[in-house]
Specification:
By secondary structure, the protein is an alpha/beta fold. It folds into 4 domains: 194 residues, P-loop containing nucleotide triphosphate hydrolases (Rossmann fold), CATH 3.40.50; 198 residues, Rossmann fold (3-Layer(aba) Sandwich); 107 residues, Orthogonal Bundle (Arc Repressor Mutant, subunit A); 74 residues, DNA polymerase, domain 1 (Orthogonal Bundle), CATH 1.10.150.80. Helix content is 46%, strand content 14%. The chain contains 26 helices and 17 strands. The strands form 4 sheets. A 7-stranded parallel β-sheet has the order 3-4-2-5-6-1-7, with helices on both faces. The chain has a 6-stranded parallel β-sheet with strand order 8-13-12-9-11-10, sandwiched between helices. It has a two-stranded antiparallel sheet with strand order 14-17. It is globular and about 90 Å long. The two termini are 40 Å apart. Bound molecules: adenosine-5'-diphosphate and zinc ion. Zinc ion (ZN) binds next to helix 15 and helix 16.
Length: 605
């Protein structure tokens, strides 16, 4: 079998994606490889195809025990003999699986790095024919990476202990040079071929919002995507609890995930999400490494993450099936301060001396500044991301918020002066809402209650909308001319330069939205379905759900949304035509072809 045949037969795909062939060829020839590809680029194919073509067994070392089951389920659905060996098996099940492995029943075996240390497994590995060791999430070996896992350091000793050294493939989505260097060195890769694919994810739409109310903004985002799966990332466990509770109160099927929950509940909630019983997952960054749910339609960051690596990795969990998906970051100035606090007061990593700890802190603060830059830029967001990862990119992508909206610079010196004066004369007692209402000369309960109409600044900006005044107040907050007091009801305080502004009202330039154009999302690859196709798509989804339920597997391992959409558009009438659809391999065509063909026929009659 050629590699193309393996791709078609098992995975149902016509062609390799960028970078995949290069890795596969080298690994097949026995050479080590380091593949750096963004989430969703298709790393697994890079070791699963060689696994099918090489003699013997491919060991996949993966950090997350909880996800191995799904990865293996997906392979078995495609007709690939695969298994996992980990602590979720009972001792009997483990021995049975090991027996079968010895008997050569599996081509691919997933193990956690800790497993490599156990005697039983070592004995097995020494007697088995292991042709390839694939190290998934290889950045876990680096102290510089975000998810350092000390047990990864044992991998090279394990590889060296094998009777014949297999090729070693390392896979990661983390690109920074120091992490790359660590992977090469600590995994003891031997003159590896290094393959980096472009970090651009064309199907992702990027946006940063700075809403007055994050909750309202989130609710709007979720409600405008009914029935679509989304992940909402929060900075803290407390925020996860709060946001998840809020969404549930609003009637949204949300679930939650963070390290403070019992393992049992974490597992259950994760399954609810994977199996589409919950459409929204509210989580800390503890959720998602290795998550292989391909139809996540949006990722919202309720708080700004600490760096671009984290952001792009988490946002990248949207749209792994290649369909248009959104990544929206809800930014607030408080996020910056929280992160600064965590960096300067955070725990120092074990075994670091003070100088090294200081270097790490400096680096983290620098990364935080770059993350903040992303939130504040009015230029193309995609370009900003790609530049960060060292890739060239045009300054217009046409599918991020900033490209879809025109911005203009307006001079706001006079308004700034009025705002500062208003805050000063009312004794720095009021929040954004009251100040904006006062300046606009609004007649509200609050204004009457505090007798604001007596102030000289009442109505000073009467020719502006309250929205425009709030926007200018936010701008002054960003500039540090104003600050907010901490606490539940933050009030506006005057910052360092405020006095200066109040006295002479120097020119100040603020970027603001000029005109709103409707989002032109929807590329050729994703034609909108007409109503009939939509109906068919709905029916196919229902059929998929029924099949998945019967077998106790997540729906997406039966077929992805992308495959179902293509079925709804092309409406194959024969098994042969069915086989031509992307994502349909031999095993799935045999198992499910007839059921789907029947459904298509019955809808079209
Ligand atoms: P990664 O591990 O890099 O995040 P995955 O290996 O999970 O990405 O692949 C992401 C998605 O892309 C999966 O649904 C996978 O089946 C699909 N995919 C991978 N390679 C191809 C290909 N050559 N053609 C079409 N789809 C592919
Ligand atoms: Zn853009």
């Amino acid at each position: 079998m050629t590699r193309e045949e393996a791709l078609k037969t098992y995975f149902g795909y016509e062609a390799f994606r960028g970078g995949q062939e290069a890795v596969i060829d080298e690994v097949l020839s026995g050479r080590d490889a380091l593949a750096i590809m963004p989430t969703g680029a298709g790393k697994s194919v890079c070791y699963q195809v060689p696994a099918l073509l090489l003699p013997g067994i491919t060991l996949v070392i993966s950090p997350l025990v909880s996800l191995m089951r799904d990865q293996v389920t997906a392979l078995v659905q495609m007709g690939v003999p695969a298994a996992f060996l980990n602590s979720s098996l009972t001792f009997r099940q483990y021995l049975l699986a090991l027996d079968r492995a010895r008997a050569g029943r599996y081509k691919i075996i997933y193990v956690a790095p800790e497993r490599l240390e156990t005697e039983g497994f070592r004995a097995f590995a020494e007697s088995a024919e292991i042709s390839l060791v694939a190290v998934d999430e290889a950045h876990c070996i680096s102290q510089w990476g975000q998810d350092f896992r000390p047990s990864y350091l044992n991998i090279p000793a394990f590889v060296a202990s094998l009777p014949r050294r297999p090729a070693v493939g390392a896979f990661t989505a983390t690109a920074t040079p120091d992490v790359r260097e660590d992977i090469r060195r600590l995994l003891a890769l031997e003159t590896p071929v290094e393959v980096t694919t472009g970090f651009n994810r064309e199907n992702l739409y990027f946006e940063v919002r700075q809403p007055d109310s994050k909750k309202a903004a989130l609710l709007e985002l979720v409600k405008s995507r009914p029935g679509k799966c989304g992940i909402v990332y929060c900075a803290t466990r407390k925020a996860v609890e709060e946001v998840c509770g809020f969404l549930r109160e609003q009637g949204i099927a949300a679930t939650r995930y963070h390290a403070g929950l019992e393992a049992e509940e974490r597992g259950r909630n994760q399954e609810d999400f994977l199996y589409d019983r919950a459409v929204v997952m509210v989580a800390t960054n503890a959720f998602g490494m290795g998550i292989d749910k391909s139809d996540v339609r949006y990722v919202v960051h309720y708080n700004m993450p600490k760096d671009m690596e984290s952001y792009y990795q988490e946002a990248g969990r949207a749209g792994r099936d290649g369909l248009p998906s959104s990544c929206v970051l809800l930014y607030g100035g408080q996020d910056v301060r929280t992160n600064e606090f965590l960096i300067t007061h955070g725990e120092v990593r074990e075994g670091l001396d003070e100088a090294a700890a200081e270097r790490l802190r400096e680096r983290d603060l620098q990364r935080l500044r770059q993350m903040t830059g992303y939130c504040r830029t009015r230029r193309c967001l995609r370009q900003h991301i790609l530049h960060y990862f060292g890739e060239a990119a045009p300054d217009y992508c046409g599918t991020c918020y900033n490209c879809l909206h025109n911005f203009e610079e307006v001079e706001v010196g006079r308004e700034a002066q009025a705002i500062v004066r208003c805050i000063a004369e009312t004794g720095q007692h009021f929040g954004v809402g009251v100040v904006a209402e006062t300046l606009c000369g609004a007649d509200t309960d609050r204004v009457r209650k505090y007798r604001m109409e007596r102030e000289s600044s009442y109505g000073a900006l009467a020719n502006f909308t309250q929205k425009a005044v709030r926007e200018r107040i936010r701008f002054l907050l960003d500039e540090g001319i104003l600050t907010l007091s901490p606490g539940q009801y933050p009030v506006l305080l005057l910052g360092e330069r405020a006095e200066d502004i109040a006295r002479n009202g120097p020119a100040l330039y603020m970027k603001t939205v000029k005109e709103e154009r409707p989002a032109a999302v929807g590329r050729s690859a994703d034609v909108e379905l007409d109503s009939r196709q939509m109906e068919l798509f709905g029916r196919l989804r229902a059929l998929r759900a029924a099949i998945a339920r019967r077998q106790g597997v997540p729906a997406y391992v039966v077929f992805s949304d992308k495959t179902l959409r293509e079925l709804a558009v092309r409406q194959p009438g024969t098994l042969q035509a069915f086989r031509e659809i992307g994502g349909v391999g031999d095993a799935k065509a045999r198992r499910y072809g007839q059921a789907f063909l029947d459904e298509i026929t019955s809808v079209l009659q």
